[in-house]
Amino acid sequence: MATSAPVETAAMRRAIEFAARGLGRTSPNPVVGCVVLDSAGRTAGEGWHQRAGGPHAEIHALRAAGDRARGGTAVVTLEPCNHTGRTGPCARALIDAGVARVVYAVADPNPTATGGALTLAEAGIDVEGGLLADAAAAGNEAWLTSVLRGRPFVLWKYAATLDGRIAAADGTSRWISSPESRADVHRLRAAADAVIVGSGTARADDPQLGVRIAGLDDDEVSQPLRVVVDSGATAVKAGARVLDGTAPTLIAVAEDAAAAHLEGLAPLVRLPRAPGGRGLSLPALLQALHDRDVRSVLLEGGPTLAGAFLAAGLVDKVVGYLAPVLLGAGPAAVGDAGITTLAQALRLDVTDTARLGPDLRITATPLHLHHARPEEN
Fold first, then answer.
1. What is the pLDDT of residue 86?
2. Beta carbons of 135 and 16 less than 8 angstroms apart
3. What is the distance in angstroms between the CA of the first residue and the CA of the last residue of the chain?
4. Between the chain's N and C termini, which has fewer beta carbons within 10 Å?
């Protein structure tokens, strides 16, 4: 097996950038980018998976490359698929295009699609895996989590003061975070398949939960499924902004809830209650969303719902927006998470920090979670 040349490493970085363009549009498929180099190592074609059911990244790149792909190298962020679904197998397309070498970042863990590398090698193509695997896996973390854990990837977002308050003692909360931070939240929503809030947030804020990005028209923006966890079917009323038609909405209620008044307002999903009878079973909620092809969720609920997700070990990433503000009283960012002593504290690994206007954005992952990705080759 040959060792990747600098030109291939540069091409993989470019492919990872292309893959990110598909975030929020490809579920239940992964985001994938591909760069085809000609036999002299020059870029011949580029592409990414743009939407579920559409051509895969390799197909876009091969079409752009045309005859220049023959004898060249395909650099792709995920092992080329080996099965026929709504589109044909990319491994066969690469073979038919006459490429001499394929370099991929992450092995495909999906049992229905894996085997592309072997098929390529059996056809006489030089194959190398593992190039920039960490970076490519990070860009595909939601899909990889969904495949390996059988549930959607959960990102919990919150905005708080430096002393951890999400509202003042009188309940006022608009606005703790800056316009720059609020715009960034819309970027997170656009990349997610679903956004979840609880009944407390629905009552207090009447959130709309749609995506608005400056400079983009509505038809250019990917809108997530809006999910309200309303166990007792008492928080969502006719005329609520979450029912405004901007994006699809799903209301999750308990199996025994009286919810006849919600019929016709939005689709309902009835779920079992959590042990102890407080709230809904969160594993059942995530399973119901997974069954609807949701592979990533943005948890925007208040402290009660956030605490429940944390207690259940169902948070994969945290994004906190900290404003240089002190309140001294008011609700905390997270409620009861089942932690009673410091030894039980959920400790996080900070993976990124950034200034957004006056605010600080901190991105972190729970230390007990290992990134859901296959071993590098």
1. 66
2. yes
3. 12
4. N
Q: Which residues contact 32 (CB under 8 A, 6 or more apart)?
A: 19, 22, 26, 48, 49, 56, 57, 58, 76, 77, 78, 140
Q: What is the mean pLDDT of residues 322-334?
A: 95
Which H or E element spans position 286? helix 282-291
Structure tokens at 327: 């309140």
CA–CA distances in Å: residue 120 to residues 5, 101, 109, 110, 114: 20, 9, 17, 17, 12
- CB neighbours of 275 closer than 8 A, spacing ≥ 6? 281
Q: Compute how many other C-beta atoms are within 10 angstroms of the C-beta atom of residue 368.
A: 9
DSSP assignment string, 337-348: -S--SGGG---E
Token digits of residue 233: 């079917």
- Contact present, 316 and 141 (Cβ < 8 Å): yes
Q: Residue range 121-131: average pLDDT?
A: 96
Selected residue with higher pLDDT from 316 and 173: 316
Q: Which residue's entry shows tokens 């949701």? A: 294
Is residue 121 packed enough to be buried (19+ CB in 10 Å), middle (13-18) or exposed (0-12)?
A: middle
- Position 377 scores a pLDDT of 32
Classified as helix, coil or strand, 191 is helix
CA–CA separation, 32 and 100 (whole Å): 20
- Residue 336 contacts residue 366 (beta carbons within 8 Å): no
What is this structure's pTM?
A: 0.89
Question: What pLDDT score does 369 carry?
Answer: 59
Identify which has the larger pLDDT, 10 or 302. 10
Residues 90-107 have pLDDT tens digits of 999 999 999 999 999 999
- Catalytic positions: 58
